[in-house]
User: Fold this.
Amino acid sequence: MEREQQIRAGWLIDGSGAAIRKNLLLTLKGPVIHGIEDFTESGCHPDVPFIDLSDCCILPPLVDCHVHITLSGSMDPHLRRKQSGADYGAIRHRISRNISTYLAHGILAVRDAGDCHGHGLRFKEEKAYRNELPVIVKHSGSGWHRKGRYGRMIARCPREGESLAAAFCREDEHNTDHVKIIQSGINSLTDYGRETAEQFCLEELAELVKTAQRRGLKVMAHANGAHPVRTAIVAGCDSIEHGFFMGEENLRRMAGEGTVWVPTICTMRAMGRATRSDLPGSDPEVLEKTLQQQLRQLGFAKSAGLKVAMGTDAGSWGVDHGVSLASEIQLFMEAGYSLPQALRCASVSGAELLGVEQHIAELRAGGPATFIAVNASPAMLALRLAAVKGVWLNGVLQGRDLRR
Ligand SMILES: [Zn+2]
Assistant:
């Protein structure tokens, strides 16, 4: 007989974007949610194990669609240089630490956006990792950028005279989960909205996308500015990363094409909160204006029905793993998303982008009993993501025993 469990939930946010429900009883049967009903004392079966989480929000596991798992969010330029040149032994520990941090924040899947040495891929290949922790990590390995352009820390370039698709085929990596392309520069910290040229032309990028698709791989494109974003969408890239200053025309185009947007707004908030000595040469007014412009774009995306998934760019300057997802959730709410809508972007929508929707899905009767319980009311949830009380994977509580 399948093991049954009863869980009393203070609040349930089911991942669909629908309103928060209060005071419920979840019944689990083996690996699935058998029922979700209003809680009453008489509705509880005395012979079935019971866990009281009336002080917790229950929600689907979180997904961070844009991390750099081999890096930390340090703001120290010396440390950043050191970590980008570190050998695999040191990086392996950092990756393990980052994975533990994700778990502590209820993040059960992340998509890595590149490291120039491919250390993340090597980590993936290690047998030990497969049993390490229940966090799914999707790896791109080293991304691709144009020689002489931005991207050296996280990507490599095609050889002289070689096309992007030819370079991708030459490397012939069978263990990557997706492909990362750098299609523009980064945002100017002093010159508001300054656009950089595209790194790859439409034809070259489209050829790469087709080649990747034949191998069943999605393409994520780092792109800011109207023109680089347009070529990435038209070339068929699956997701636009960052997308600062892409403009409403591109947002509408993405809605039409089904392209997913990962706006990584908290990068700009991190830089905006730094002092001038932390970030020499930056203009705080430009950073704040850039942040506000991205929030307006996100508000427009919501009204245009665009698919948006949440990613933080954790590991980039000032963006720490785990906790930065909480700040991204708050930024989505500043842009006009309700908490359940923001959490949908941070869970179910991200799971679809990563192709892990069989594991992380809306919480409903008949669906997988995979969820997290956070010791917070909805009002405090975004501030208390680290207060994860329990993680259930297919009906099994990970770690400690919470039964009464
Ligand atoms: Zn990134």
